[in-house]
C-alpha cells in the first residue's frame, strides 16, 4: 500500500495463492474472449424481471447511474427478502468471506495457514454469541432476518461457482470442492460481532501501557499516554471551552491492585507482546484498531442554515477495503401500513438487513465511535483445567471446536474460559509463548495466563436496534432505538424535519469495582471485577442545545457523568470542525450543505502549526536550513499537491524515530493524535530527556529538531527527487484499494484482478480529512473516511453522498470502483430519495416476481 511495507495483519493470509497463478495463465492462454466471459459471467441482471421464490408480491429494484438500488415492496417481508437478494447480486463473495471470518472458518477456504486465526475467533465465540442473540429476537425482528436470508438463498439457488463471483473461479483452482452453503440469519448477526471487535477501543492501549511499564517509570508511561485536555479541547456536550479537567489518576503498573504489590509487568511482557502481535495478525474488517479508529459527525440546527432546518454531516473513518465496507441503498414500502413500515435510505452492510446510517422520511442520524473501555485483560492463575479465584481452585469452562481445513485434516482445539472470559493465551502456533507470564511475580501456584472480558461476549440487543432506528419518527423513538444499541457503543447524532437536533451515547459499558481499565489486573481476586453496566438513563444525551451545534469526532463527551474511558481521541479533529463552523458562522452567515461538505475536506494540520513558528526561529545551516526555508510560508495544510506537506510528514516520522525509536517493540509511535499530544507538550520542555538520542549525538529540543530537518531533507529528495518544486504529499500518501481476501496474495497478476489504485491523496492522521497513515510503517494510507454524506432536512433530495469504491463487488464491473475518483476529489453525488426523484434518477428497473 503506497510506500508501506506489507501490513502484518494479513501476512499469513492466502499463502496458498502461489498456485493460483495458474488462473491468469489459463485466462491468457484461452484468449481475451474467454477471459472476459469468465470475468463478466457473474454480473447480475439489473433490468427486466426475475421469478424469486418466497416473495408474496412483486418488488421493484430501481438503480441509478452508479448502480445504487432503491427497493420498493408491498410488505416488510418482501422488502427485506429483496434486500437480501440484491445484496447477494452485488456482494455475495464479500458476504461469504466475512461469515467465514466471523465463524472462525477461514481455514475451510484457504487452508492450514488460517488455523491460528480461526482458533482465536472460535475462542471469542462470535458465532456462538450470535446464535444466542438470534434466540432472543422478538418475532417481528426474527422474521426480518429470516426473510433476508431467504432472499440471499433465492439468489444462491440460481447461481454457483464463478457465476456468483470471479473470486470463486480463482478459489476453485486451489479448493475445487468448495461450494457456499445457504445463508442464515445467524450469519448476518455474527457480522455485528466483527463490527464490535474492530471498534473495541483501548485494548491495544492497555497492552501498550503494560509493555511500556516494563522499562519506564509510571510518570513517563502516563506522559506517553496523555489524557484528554478538557480545558483546551472541545467536548461533545460542552462544545469549545469545556469544563475544568476531570481528575485522572495515574495508571497502575500491570498486575497491581490496591491490596497487592505485584511485580508482574516485566514477567508478563512477553505474553502481552505476543498477544499484541496476534491481534495485529487477525483479519480486521474495519481497519486498524486502537486510537486512530474514529469518525466525524456534526449537526447544525436551522438557526444556522440557509433553509431554516437542520443539516447533518457524517464520515466514518475505517480501514479501506475493496469493495467498500458500505453499500448504499434505499428501502421503501409502496404504501406505509402495519404490513410495511419502512421508508429509509442510507448506508448498509452487505450481509445485514436494514440501513445502518442514513435517514427516513422524518429523521436522520449519523455514527461515530464513542470508544468507551469495554474490554479488559486479566491475569489468571491457571493449573491444569482449573483457575484460582479468592484462594479457591475452580474448574475452567471447556469447549471443543473442530476446524475444517482445506487440503488437510480437521484440527480440534479446546477453548478454555474463566468466569471473566476466554483465555487468550496458548491457543495456536502464533501464540506459543503467550503462557510465559508473571509466574515469578506471585507465590501462588499455577501458570499466569490472560483472560479477556469484553461486553460483546454476552448476548445483547443490537440486532434489534437497527430496525427500531430505521422506523423511528421522532426523538423519543430515536432514543428507544438507541437504548437497544449495546455494542459497539457509538455517538449517535440526530436531526428531524421539525427542526430538532440531538445526541445520544448508547452502549453496554461496564462499571469497575477498582481501576480505570488502563492496565491488566489480577483475576485471582474478586476485588477486581465488573459490577454491572451503566444504566442507559445515565449515559450522556443532549437535545436542542442553545448553541444549535453538536460535534462528535471521538473526543470526550463531557468532563462530568459516569466514567466511560481514559483513552479518548485527544480532540484535534473536533477542534478543527468547531473552528471551521465558527469561521463560517462569523457575522451571522448561514450554512449550506456545500459548506458542510467543504469542512469534511479540511486538511489543516494542527501538529504542523505547532512546529512551524518554532522551526522558523531556529539557527540552522546545511540541509536543515534548506528544509526550514522550504517550510517558510506554508499554511500548514496537508493538501495532496503540497510539497511542504510531504516534507513535513518525512520530518515528523524522522523526529518520532529519533525521540522514541528506543521504546519496546510493539510500542513505536504511529504518529496520530496521541503523539501530537505527547510531542506538543514536550515542545514546552526543551531540556526533557526525550529530546536526547546518544546514538544520534543530539541533546535538547532544538538539536533534535535540527537533526530531523536535516535527515528528512535527504530522505525526501531520495523519495521524490532532487527538485523540491515537484514534490507533493500525494506522491507519498497513496491509497491502494485492496481486496480483503485476494488483494495481498503477493502475486501481482491476482492482485491486479481485484485491487485498484494507487490514488494520490492529501489529509492525514488527526486531521478533519482523516486520511490517516502509520508513521511506524511508512506514508501510505491506512484508514480513510469510508464514506461521506450530508443530509438536508429541508429537502432530502438535496442531500449528497459518496462511497469509497462503488456499489458492485464484481471486479471489472463498471460500478466496482466508479465512485473512487469522486471520493478522491472530495466530490459527492446527488442522493435521490423521494419516489419522484428516484424514478427520475433510475437507469435500470428490475422486477422481482413471486415464483409461480
Structural commentary:
The protein has 852 residues and is of the alpha+beta class. 33% of the residues lie in helices and 18% in strands. Strands 1-30-2-3-6-7-8-9-16-17-21 form an eleven-stranded mixed sheet, with helices on both faces. Strands 4, 5, 22, 25, 26, 27, 28 and 29 form an eight-stranded antiparallel sheet that branches. Strands 10, 11, 12, 15 and 19 form a five-stranded mixed sheet that branches. A hairpin with a 5-residue loop joins strand 2 (59-63) and strand 3. The two termini are 50 Å apart. Mean pLDDT is 90; it is low at 1-15, 242-265 and 428-444.
Write out key terms for the chains shown.
852 residues; alpha+beta; 11-stranded mixed sheet; 8-stranded antiparallel sheet; 30 strands; disordered N terminus
Strand percentage lies at 15-25%
Weakly predicted, low-confidence segments: 1-15, 242-265, 428-444
Query: What is the overall silhouette?
Result: globular
Count of helices? 25
Helix/strand structural class: alpha+beta
What proportion of the residues is helical, as a percent range? 25-40%
Largest sheet: 11 strands, mixed
Distance N terminus to C terminus?
Answer: 50 Å
E-strand count: 30
Spatial strand order of the main sheet: 1-30-2-3-6-7-8-9-16-17-21
Mean pLDDT: 90
**Cα-atom radius of gyration:** 26 Å
